Amino acid sequence: MWVRTFGSKDIDAISALLGKTWHATYDDIYGAERVKQITAEWHNPSALAMQVRMLNCECLVADNGDKIVGMAYGREEEPGLVKLHQLYVLPEFHGQGVGELLLKEIEDSFFDAKHFFLEVEEKNTRAIRFYEKHEYKNSGAVDNCGREDSGIPALIFSKTRGV
After folding, report:
1. Residue 22 CB neighbour total at 10 angstroms
2. Structural domain tally of the chain?
């Protein structure tokens, strides 16, 4: 298993991975139709291609040599402050250290950053346990996760390092 930067050739595989992981994670919370709508809008190849072109970001995949099994996307929102926008691992690879590899590489990619944050669905207890294990703490909430008009509430988890 290795972590590498993703490029345009990986976008279809990442789009499929996000569709699968979102359905596995959120169908019971939001319903399959809402998840289908979100993934079609947020995780389509065009939207992912825009991520690759963003400044001050890191776009990563975990590749087992056969297929992409996880992905992460982080962006420095302002100097020293990084938002982890996405970290998803195929369900059949949960518990195998893939998420840890991706999270560590995102944090290492922004070596000067002191503050990291992310938004997580409060019912996604598996993700919350994962982030708490990696020293992220609940630091608030938002009414619109992912996009300003999403209507999806989420918790904010943050981590400060080297202070």
Report:
1. 18
2. 1
Angle among Cα 50, 66, 21 to the nearest 5 degrees reads 55
pLDDT digits (tens, 9 = 90+) for 100-143: 999 999 999 999 999 999 999 999 999 999 999 999 999 999 98
Token reading at 110: 């922004």
Nearest of 56, 123, 129, 122 to residue 99 by alpha carbon: 129
- Rounded Cα distance, 129 and 147, in Å: 24
* CATH number, domain containing residue 71: 3.40.630.30
| Tokens 């291609």 sit on residue | 49
Query: Could you give the angle at the alpha carbon of 96 between the alpha carbons of 92 and 98, nearest 5°?
Result: 90
What's the Cα-to-Cα distance from 86 to each of 27, 145, 162, rounded to whole Å? Answer: 18, 12, 23
Domain range for 130 is: 2-160
Return phi, psi of residue 115, to 5°: -125, 135
Q: Is the pTM of this model over 0.85?
A: yes
Closest listed residue to residue 71, CA positions, set 80, 63, 79: 63
Please answer whether residues 110 and 81 qualify as being in contact, where contact means their C-beta atoms are separated by less than 8 angstroms.
no
From start to end of 104-151, where are the E strands? 115-120, 137-142
